[in-house]
Structure formats: C-alpha cells, structure tokens
Amino acid sequence: MSKTLFERLGGRNGISMIVDDTVENHMNNSAVNARFLPFKEKPEQLAIIKNHTVDFFSAGSGGPNNYKGKDMVTAHTGMNISHAEYMHVMNDIFMALDKNNIDEDSKKDVLSILWSLKGMMISK
Question: Please, are residues 92 and 27 in contact by the beta-carbon 8 Å criterion?
C-alpha cells in the first residue's frame, strides 16, 4: 500500500517544519514580506496562522484531522493577492520542501494542490 502525501511529508511534525521554513522564507522574500513581517510583532497571531496552515495542509494531504478554519476564499478576501505574489509564495514553499528533503513525486503532489487553490486566493 502506498503512503499518503501526509505521511510522505513527515506527518504533522514534518508539515509543521515545512510551514515554519515557508514562513521564514516569506519573511525574507522582498516580493511578499510586507504581508508577513508585521506578524513578527504578533507572535501569538503568527502561531495561530501557522497552526491553521498545518491543519489545512494536514487534512488536505490525507492526514487524520479535519480542518476547522476558514475556507480559502474567506481567508484571503480583501488581501488582493497578485499572480506574481502567489508565484513567489509557491517558490518559498518549494524552497522549504527542498530544505526538508521532500521527494520529487511528493513535490509534484504539493504543486497540484497549490495550483488548485490559486483561483481561490488571487485578487480576492
């Protein structure tokens, strides 16, 4: 039996490390860091966002938990995210996947998920 994407990403702990690395990449990416740097002054709020992201991706990758946060459209409405920003965010995620030694097939599966969410986030 093949492993779920959740398992291939290292389960909840692996996804948590990927999310932490991704957020750090966002903070260092001048194309998107204006959206993320303010959270350095609000660590409690950043922890909530990270936890929601871990929950969302855990549930969406075959993990055992259900996601109870906002849907993608609701969560991103009013942010007016551009296509270019979305592509930078995807690059940041892939740098985190590489840092965490995620295999190519799993990265393709992550890309598929990210691409499916694009329309729910851009220019909302």
Answer: no
